[in-house]
Amino acid sequence: MAQPHHIARRNNTGFTLLELLVALALMGLLAAWGLPNFQALGERSAVTSEVNRLQTILTLARNTAITQQSDITVCPANEGKNACSDDWNNPVIIVQGDKTTSISDQDIVRVFAPTKGVHVTKNGHSRIKYNPVGHVGGFNSTYTICPSNDQTTSSGAELVVSTLGRARVGEDPISCGD
Hints:
This protein starts with 16 loop residues before the first helix and ends with a strand. It contains one helix and nine strands; from the N terminus they run H-E-E-E-E-E-E-E-E-E. The strands form two sheets. Strands 4, 6, 7, 8 and 9 form a five-stranded antiparallel beta sheet that branches. Strands 3-2-1-5 form a four-stranded antiparallel beta sheet, with helices on one face. By secondary structure, the protein is α+β, with helices and mostly antiparallel strands. The chain is elongated and about 110 Å long.
């Protein structure tokens, strides 16, 4: 009597093409949904970084004025770093004395590189001068920090410098999409 031939069955444990396409489509939808949130996270991070940088600059300048008992000027530098400019998106310098032009390397206390991804504006004068007791003459100054990406309506921050020379962050986020 003839033995029946058994056909060996393989146990397939892989995925079908349809299953792979569905999984790929779901991953694509999740990525498309999360991308704007990821960009907003980057913008918020850049704004926070710039606020922290400006607070560091202003605190160092105030402390230097008090400890050295002399005037200290904070301003954005021009391209040659030998004079102040009006653009707070440039590197920021801390200078000994009340100088805005003819600044030598010996006058510069510190240079801070700009933060990428943000746009900074300041009301009033283009510089801040601390006197030997750490006060700022004139009126409160306000820095406005917004993401430089114009394609999104996003929030920024304000940094206010009081006449006593102290810097504080505004409580509410500001709208930068206007």
